[in-house]
Design goal:
Blueprint (H helix, E strand, L loop, with lengths): L7 H31 L3 H4 L1 H24 L1 H22 L2 H29 L4 H28 L4 H5 L2 H12 L20 H32 L6 H22 L5 H21 L3 H16 L1 H11 L5 H30 L1 H4 L2 H15 L2 H4 L3
Length: 382
């Protein structure tokens, strides 16, 4: 069984991501609360996801230049600073005229951190990049679940849900003092900025990556709405839905790479996509709350490892240009985050959330097809 030495580099990069995931986990159950306060439709509320996606695309354009000029460690801290200074404007803004630009600004910084986290871990653990990325993302999922539970709990006991999301600020400050000197800037100052054409295998893999991110965010944004629609449960159940999904994320990210350590990256991805498709089928037909939560747990197990594994796959197919690969992945992820939840919400307003959710299995099959068309080990250039 492969073991990973989790040192200061690992924990600094990992905890940066965990702070972001705390916010992301809290963002889910905050959505219906914010939507109720703002009096908006599903489509308008879905614009927050669109802003997150646009932010990812902006970050993807800026990221290679910023990393080339100041290095990955400083870019991560700049990103965390942008994120934490934007959060108060989202949390305290009230009107959608404030919350939309605030989430856009915050998530530009959010994506700087995420892009550097995967690149940093891949370069620090060259022999086991997918294991390092998956375990880091598993710990991130703990932050996701805690954020979900805290926002839901605060709202239920009469404490403002906004206070829970503001906790990212002292957490980020504390982490800076712990980890500001843990990650070395190991870039070659004389090297040109990573650029050039990426091969056809990379672009096919990027289509698969786009589909995996689309299915993840479409599911995470509106799963609670489908559950309440199908089971008649109270909207407050959204906290349990997202907690079940987030718990599955953590289990999948931590254990799948360990249990399947003797298999190829592509085999692991095919396995978790199959788990996601089967669990989604159960989730979609369920009219029972317990069964729906059980299905969401396994959807989370299936989805959990997809982001770190598909990102490592893109790096492997980038011909030694990881920062360029991450920039392209940010553009693809941004498009997915901007379009998928919004499109599902738009369809939900027109034909009902249940029928609209049928876009998810189409996305899963698209991801699987990209794996069949491009085998990572066959096209990887060392």
């Amino acid at each position: 069984m492969t073991k990973l030495k989790r040192d200061g580099v690992f924990w600094t990069a990992c905890l940066q991501g965990t702070i972001l995931n705390f916010f992301l986990g809290g963002f889910g159950p905050a959505q219906p609360l914010l939507r109720q306060e703002q009096g908006t439709s599903l489509t308008v509320a879905g614009l927050h996801g669109t802003m997150m996606g646009i932010a990812a695309m902006i970050a993807g354009i800026i990221h290679p230049t910023l990393v080339h000029k100041i290095g990955r460690p400083k870019t991560s801290w700049v990103g965390l600073a942008i994120f934490t200074t934007g959060v108060p404007f989202f949390v305290l803004g009230g009107s959608i005229a404030f919350t939309l630009p605030a989430i856009l600004y915050s998530c530009i910084g959010f994506n700087f951190v995420i892009l550097n986290m995967i690149s940093t871990l891949s370069s620090h653990y060259p022999e086991t990049p997918d294991l390092a990325a998956s375990q880091s993302n598993a710990i991130n999922a703990v932050g996701y679940v805690i954020g979900t539970v805290m926002v839901g709990t605060f709202a239920k006991v009469g404490i403002s849900w906004r206070l829970a999301l503001l906790l990212v600020i002292p957490a980020a400050i504390a982490l800076y003092f712990y980890g500001r000197d843990k990650i070395e800037d190991n870039r070659d100052l004389g090297a040109p900025k990573q650029s050039g054409k990426l091969g056809v295998p990379f672009w096919i893999a990027l289509v698969g990556f786009f589909a995996t991110i689309s299915s993840e965010f479409a599911t995470a944004f509106w799963a609670a709405t489908l559950v309440t629609n199908r089971t008649g449960a109270d909207p407050a159940i959204s906290t349990l839905c997202i907690a079940a999904l987030g718990t599955g994320f953590g289990i999948g990210r931590w254990f799948i790479p360990i249990w399947m350590s003797q298999t190829t990256l592509d085999t692991r991805l095919k396995t978790i996509l199959s788990i996601q498709l089967l669990a989604f089928s159960l989730f979609w037909i369920s009219h029972n709350l317990t069964l729906s939560l059980f299905a969401l747990l396994f959807i989370g197990i299936g989805i959990g490892g997809q982001f770190p594994m598909t990102t490592v796959r893109l790096i492997k197919l980038s011909n030694g240009r990881p920062d360029l690969a991450m920039a392209k992945s940010a553009l693809a992820a941004g498009g997915a985050i901007a379009l998928a939840p919004f499109l599902l919400a738009l369809l939900g307003d027109q034909i009902g959330i249940s029928r609209a959710y049928l876009m998810v299995p189409f996305l899963i099959i698209t991801s699987f097809t990209a794996l069949l068309l491009v085998k990572t080990e066959a096209h990887q250039k060392l």
